[in-house]
């Protein structure tokens, strides 16, 4: 039986994007194909636990507190075979979301209720350049529901994002977040207001779990 490498499973509030504030069970998988300079989940590689999809479901049920929302995140969840887990979550009538770094496309995305994909900016040291893959992810978001999201550390990041969005005309919600410890929310807003990105559905948001210092 296929087993997944799991870093942690816990109940909390979604801290970012369109799902902000939503009570959710987080299933954080281990491992990632990227090494972003400002990654805040490097610990996912430390002592992961091997769990079957059924074992994960049982753990979710222990902690869900009546919520039907499950977020599969990482690390990079598409780096593992999550098909059986997603199928079981659907059977149990959970609403399933995924956070992906935007570098991998799999058809399993079409089985999610909400998809969040990153646009990696230059400060990450892994800027998004594989447009074919990213466009497939965006098309999945259009078919389902979701967002594309970018972390901004400086003006170079912002200019990269502006060109990336305006050149490719991605018709999905765009979330822009300040890189924690690198740029303030106020400064990011100033940069945006002085040079707005031409896009019909854009939000400049904080990660509220970092402000509130909760997991």
Give the tags.
alpha/beta, TIM Barrel, 215 residues, 6 helices
Characterization of the model:
The chain has a domain at 3-150: Aldolase class I (TIM Barrel, Alpha-Beta Barrel). The longest helix has 14 residues, at 155-168. The model has no long low-confidence stretch (mean pLDDT 95). It has a nine-stranded mixed sheet. The chain has helices spanning 53-63, 83-91, 131-143, 155-168, 185-194, 208-211, and strands at 3-13, 23-29, 49-52, 69-73, 95-100, 114-119, 146-152, 174-178, 202-204. β4 (69-73), α2 (83-91) and β5 form a beta-alpha-beta unit. The chain starts with a strand and ends with a helix. With 215 residues, the chain is of the alpha/beta class.
In short:
This protein has 6 helices and 9 strands, in the order E-E-E-H-E-H-E-E-H-E-H-E-H-E-H. With 215 residues, the chain is an alpha/beta fold.
> Beta-strand percentage?
25-35%
As a whole number of angstroms, the C-alpha radius of gyration is 17 Å
- In CATH, what is the class of the domain at 3-150? Alpha Beta
> How far is the N terminus from the C terminus?
31 Å
State mean pLDDT (0 to 100 scale). Answer: 95
- Derived from helix and strand composition plus strand pairing, the structural class reads alpha/beta
Give helix % range: 25-40%
> Which stretches of 5+ consecutive residues score pLDDT under 50?
none
CATH architecture grouping of the domain at 3-150: Alpha-Beta Barrel
Order of helices and strands: EEEHEHEEHEHEHEH
Strand order of the largest sheet: 3-1-2-4-5-6-7-8-9
Question: Biggest β-sheet, characterized?
Answer: 9 strands, mixed
* Global shape: globular
The number of strands is: 9
**CATH homology superfamily of the domain at 3-150:** Aldolase class I
Q: Fill in the CATH topology of the domain at 3-150.
A: TIM Barrel
The helix count comes to 6
